[in-house]
Amino acid sequence: MIITRGSGILMHITSLPSRFGIGDLGPAAYRFSDFLADTGQRYWQILPINPTSPECAHSPYSSPSSFGFNTLLISPEELVSVGLLDVEDLDPVPVFPANFVDYAKAAGFRNRLFDTAFERFRESGGDYRFDAFRRENRDWLGDHALFVALKGYTGGKSWSNWPAPLRDREPEALERMREQLEERIERESFLQCIFAEQWASLRRYSADRKVHFIGDIPIYVAYDSVDVWKNPGIFKLDDRKRPTVVAGVPPDCFSRTGQLWGNPVYDWAALKEQDYTWWVRRIARAVDLYDLTRIDHFRGFIDYWEVPAEEETAENGYWVDGPGAEFFNRLAEHFPCLPIIAEDLGDNTPAIQMVLDRFGFPGMRVLLYAFAGDPATSPHAPHNHIRNCIVYTGTHDNETVRGWFDESAGDEERQVLFRYLGRRIPGREVHREFVRMALSSVARVAIVPVQDLFGMGNAARMNRPATVEKNWVWRLTAGKCAEAPAEWLRELAEVYRRV
Question: Name one GO biological process term (predicted).
Answer without folding.
Answer: carbohydrate metabolic process
